Backbone:
């Protein structure tokens, strides 16, 4: 009567019996397939050996197919980017005007690309903060575009570049009189301007000077235009003129 086992214990015991009773296991037994009766597995010695070899080997887990069609879900970042605002320092000044431009946003988020359009035909800038120089007077529209996280935002601001960089005036005492007329000149300018400043006087009669305060004598009658030009190290400048009236000498 053949042996009947079940479960892992049966497989292990069968392996041992197959080794001990190998001569008794004829070809007919080895070729007979396993049968099942009343829930108990009946197997040949050859099958016992095969099952014993699989003891301790984990059963493969079938792969779960990826969802497709209506069951597939695509995960994306929420389309959001904080509002951007341009900060320009200064917003106006004389040519050439150098600006420090930066982006003020409500919160800092990585992965945002910034592109600047300076409105003067020069190549675009990149980065959250840039420096740019406007070389000529005029009004320029500076724009910033921020892109990232499936969204974008932009802002614009107007930059005014003046022909002259700072206020300047001339004091002349006297500005009218008989020849020879001795005139004291002085430049009236903001004392807080960064320097050093360069002064160039043209008195209108061929004479020149390079002092902030100077004097000049007009020896011949006539109307003269004295011109003062002031320049700073950045190349910005301002210019003013004043009329000097020199009358003929007093006959007395």
Residues:
């Amino acid at each position: 009567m053949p042996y009947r086992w079940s479960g892992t214990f049966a497989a292990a015991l069968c392996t041992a019996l197959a080794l001990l009773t190998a001569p008794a296991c004829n070809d007919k037994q080895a070729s007979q397939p396993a049968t099942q009766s009343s829930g108990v597995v009946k197997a040949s010695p050859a099958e016992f050996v095969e099952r014993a070899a699989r003891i301790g080997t984990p059963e493969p887990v079938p792969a779960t197919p990826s969802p497709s069609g209506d069951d597939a879900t695509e995960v994306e970042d929420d389309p959001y980017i904080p509002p951007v605002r341009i900060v320009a320092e200064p917003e106006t000044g004389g040519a050439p005007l150098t600006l420090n431009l930066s982006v003020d946003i409500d919160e800092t988020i990585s992965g945002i690309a910034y592109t600047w359009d300076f409105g003067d035909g020069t190549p675009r800038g990149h980065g959250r903060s840039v420096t740019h120089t406007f070389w000529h007077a005029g009004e320029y529209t500076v724009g910033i575009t921020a892109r990232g996280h499936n969204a974008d935002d932009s802002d614009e601001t107007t930059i005014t570049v003046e022909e002259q960089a700072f206020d300047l005036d001339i004091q002349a005492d006297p500005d009218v009189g008989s020849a020879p007329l001795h005139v004291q000149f002085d430049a009236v300018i903001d004392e807080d301007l960064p320097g050093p400043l360069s002064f160039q006087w043209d008195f209108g009669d061929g004479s020149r000077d390079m002092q902030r305060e100077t004097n000049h004598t007009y020896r011949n009658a006539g109307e003269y235009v004295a011109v003062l030009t002031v320049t700073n190290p950045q190349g910005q400048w301002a210019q003013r003129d004043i009329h000097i009236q020199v009358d003929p000498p007093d006959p007395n």
